Amino acid sequence: MYIIMKLLMIYSKKFYYNPTVKTLENFETINDDFKINNALVAFIHVEEQDEKDIKSIEKKLVKNLKWAAKKNNTNIVVLHSFAHLSDSKASPEFTKELFNMAEARMKNADYETYQTPFGYFLDLSVDAPGYSLARIFKSF
What we know:
Blueprint: E1 6-22, E2 34-45, H1 54-71, E3 76-81, H2 92-108, E4 112-115, E5 120-127, E6 135-139
Parallel strand pairs: 2-3, 3-4
Antiparallel strand pairs: 1-2, 1-5, 1-6
C-alpha cells in the first residue's frame, strides 16, 4: 500500500478568502471574495500517483468529506487546492477535474459545496474551534 492524497479538514465557524495572485493563467479569473459560516474547509493536496485512478480517489475523498462534515454537524463543504503538503503534485488539470467530480457528488448528496478559486494564492481567514474533530488529517 502506498500513501497518496493528503487531506486536511478544518471545521470553521467563519471562513473567508480573497483572491490575491493568479498563478495558473489557463483557469478562470475570479476577483470576488467569499465568506461562509459553519463550513468544513478541505485543504486538499492531490499527488501525481493519484492520476492513476481518479474514480477511486474521488470516492475516498467524498467519503472522508461526508464523515467529517457529519462529525461537525454541517452540510457545508469548501474544497481548497493546497499543494503544499508534499513534493509530489498532480497536474492542475487533473486536480481541477477531481474537484469538479467531488463537488458534483457532494451536491447530489445534499451538501452545499463550494470551491475556492483554482490557481490562486488567497488571503484566508479560518476561525476554527478548539476541539479534536475540528481538525482532521487523512492520507489515502
